[in-house]
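Re: the 174-residue chain
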Amino acid sequence: MKKAMVIPRVWKSTDAAAAAKDFFTKPRKTAVRELMRELCSDDPFDHRCAAELARLVSRREPGILAAYGDVLAEVAAALPMEEWQARGYVIVAAAHNALTRSQRLRLLPLVRARLAEDRIAVRTMALEAFAILAASEPELRDEAMEMLEEARHSPIPAMRCRAKLMLPLLMRSL
């Protein structure tokens, strides 16, 4: 029996930017429904693309997916290790859409777990998510400031860059 050849699909940052632009041109309910359907699909490629789109639209308009805040957290917890990009993207989207204290506190252990992962990209996105949560939760701010200060001096360029990006957000919340 002949094995089928698997051709990997490509999703570039330009594709993500175009998808975000398209998202905001559609009626809101339709765009959100399509995004969540892709995020909850069985296809890892769809997860990754939808997770990145969720992150991008949530950065631009925090709370845009608030009705699905709990679903975003559940997806973030359920994605397997090999889907590391989707796991990182969706944790940031979940943080942007955790509008209640209880949602933020439920998300916190998952963010902390991501901060301890081996993959730098996932840790970097978890650092961003932690800072987002800390901006709304005063008791997390000192810890977040320590993390960001430590990351600013990290030998890892991505950690330094993310820390510099997140410091103004946290400083505004003080």
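The two ends are 64 Å apart (CA to CA).
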